[in-house]
Amino acid sequence: MGKSRAKSEPQPSDSRPLIVFPGGGIYFWWQAGVVQGLQKRINVDSFDFTGASAGSLSAVFAACGVDMMQAFHLAQKLAEEKNVWTRKEGLAGIWGDMIYQWLDELLPENAAEICTDRVDMVAVSVTSVRLSFLPLKRKSITRFKTKKDLIEACMASVHVPMFLDGKMSRSLDGDICVDGSITFVLRNKPWHFKPQDRKPSLMIHHQDDKELMARKWNFLETISLDQFEEMFEMGQKYAEEMIDKKTLESFIQEYS
Fold first, then answer.
1. Over the stretch 149-166, which tens digit does the pLDDT of each residue have?
2. From residue 52, how far is each of 103, 217, 240 by CA, in Å?
3. Domain residue spans of the chain
4. Where is the PNPLA domain (predicted)?
């Protein structure tokens, strides 16, 4: 389990830059590379984060200052223990337990305190475990009592029905929840949502990386370890280019 980490002094929410991580399945590892690239070049302690699905993990890791290379190597270790690379089904059906253990080992003990009112996590609440009754409602989670609460919120946000653990949904605070990106996929709406109508957010979306998109990996595909490493490196490169082009600097200046 991770050690506690010092929490930065709070600022009013409307004065903190907001970075948004949408869903992306395996493209999480591109987002992880982006987080690693940002951590190397700038101090993100004054940022807020919003995430849905895989993006919720990126948001929590970024807020908690988790070493993304350490996260990559631990994920590799867990995958090898579960024989993911030789398993016919790949990650299907076993990914959920792996993610839970991974989060528990990586996140600092005071992760809930760090993320409360700084990370806005999105899941989707449904009225039936068969997902047959509408409407699908967006569930925003931004307050966490314990590290376990935080991890449970992450698990609800990333819950791809059946794929993650063979179950259609995950319970969170009495709600039946599924993957936080589903409403955006079904409604074909853009990902530029801003919690509480705040100032413009900076979107970290894998579809904006043309080099990455040229690989044409399926978002739930179990690609090789070398390809995951390549994806991670592409994310770092994207972050460095964003900083060098002063895209991030211009965004931050909107809050000054």
1. 999 999 999 998 888 888
2. 16, 20, 23
3. 18-120+180-254
4. 19-195
